[in-house]
Design goal:
Number of helices: 12
Oligomer: single chain
Radius of gyration: 26 Å
Helix content: 40-55%
Strand content: 5-15%
Length: 359
């Protein structure tokens, strides 16, 4: 009887459904599109999880391509068939499985130790290293030719950055640019580099909401979230390079952009620090809640738009946190920009003439 399994190709996180047959020469894999593929017995290793929750067949050179059987009946069936047909004795099978489990235990230990090592490297990294790393990332993801460079817009943006920077901590010099792109997004790179897309500016309603986005990004910088993620990516690349498995091609633009995505815990910490930063700058913290609430509502109707909130806490929890931060500030807030200045920034961002071209 065929066994249903999940197939992962190591190039993406997509889960593909396949059907397994144990043939005389190995595992025969039938893909959803009808394509047949043979995994000879010598071309994979078998990993069996504790408590028999799944059986994993990893294909050499063991870079992530695998088959995952999670159904208990399917696991029993495929293992029994392999014992009968694989060109080895039962003792050899048990030895191989024991070796695989030993490798799995060792790999688990390395996996658990790796975040600690990444954290140590991140804490020891000087600000000058972060600035060089952030500059390289920023120039790759948002080159000068793709930035809004209108002088009046730059001057207005500098006022927002200066107001936040004066009450920021960590010794960073913040460099904020605006990308001429319709994507609803913003990101923070190490060393104080922050980029906001025109698509996001077009959906905000005030300079205070922009300041809230920047305050959130500044906290990713000062708490070294983006540095930690990029250090992790660089170390993985170095490890792959040593094994000769193509690590040199890993740290490209896509990899750098992926490394700037934060964990939910990072987002929560950046929210909390950003709200405090707004309060110290006398900018209404409720602007953060309104900004994210508006982005969340509008992004649902934007086909193909990047979901900026995919890893963020719930909007409702943000609204409550922003209200509490606003109450602690006593309500003594001053807008960072006038309505006219904000409208002018939006118009320049979306103008199709000169250096202010938005899309």
């Amino acid at each position: 009887m065929p066994v249903h399994a999940a197939y992962f190709d190591a190039r993406s996180a997509a889960r593909q459904q396949v059907v397994l047959h144990v043939a005389g020469e190995g595992l025969r894999v039938t893909h959803e599109d009808g394509r047949l593929e043979l995994w000879p017995f010598h071309s994979y290793r078998v990993l069996r999880s504790p408590a028999d929750r799944f059986v994993r067949f990893e294909r050499a050179p063991y870079l992530g391509e695998c088959l995952l059987v999670e159904d208990p009946a399917g696991m029993t069936q495929v293992l029994d068939q392999l014992r009968e047909r694989a060109p080895s004795s039962g003792r050899a099978w048990r030895s191989a499985l024991g070796l695989a489990l030993g490798v799995a235990v060792l790999g688990t230990g390395l996996y658990l130790a790796f975040p600690l090592f990444v954290g140590l490297v991140t804490r020891l990294a000087p600000v000058s290293f972060e600035e060089k790393l952030g500059e390289a990332v920023s120039r790759s993801l948002a080159p000068d030719t793709e930035r809004v460079s209108n002088l009046s817009t730059t001057a207005v943006l500098d006022r927002v950055v200066d107001r936040l920077s004066r009450v920021s901590e960590g010794g960073y010099t913040y460099r904020v640019s605006v990308a001429r792109d319709s994507m609803v997004n913003a990101w923070a790179a190490p060393g104080g580099y922050v980029n906001v897309h025109c698509g996001l500016i077009g959906r905000l309603e005030s300079g205070d909401e922009l300041a809230a986005i920047l305050a959130h990004g500044f906290q990713h910088v000062s708490q070294r979230h983006s540095t930690r993620n990029l250090v992790r990516t660089m170390l993985i690349r170095a490890g792959l390079s040593l094994t000769g498995t193509g690590g040199d091609a890993l740290f490209d633009t896509a990899a750098m952009f992926g490394a700037l995505h934060m964990m939910r815990s990072d987002e929560t910490a950046a929210d909390a620090g950003g709200l405090e930063l707004l309060r110290r700058a006398r900018i209404d913290p409720r602007a953060m809640a309104s900004a994210f609430e508006r982005i969340e509502m509008e992004s649902k109707s934007l086909p193909g738009a990047l979901d900026y909130l995919s890893t963020h806490p719930s909007t409702q929890s943000r609204i409550e946190a922003a209200r509490m931060a606003a109450a602690r500030g006593g309500g003594r807030y001053a807008p960072v920009l006038t309505p006219a200045e904000w409208r002018a920034m939006q118009q320049v961002c979306y103008s199709r003439t000169g250096n202010g071209r938005g899309r």
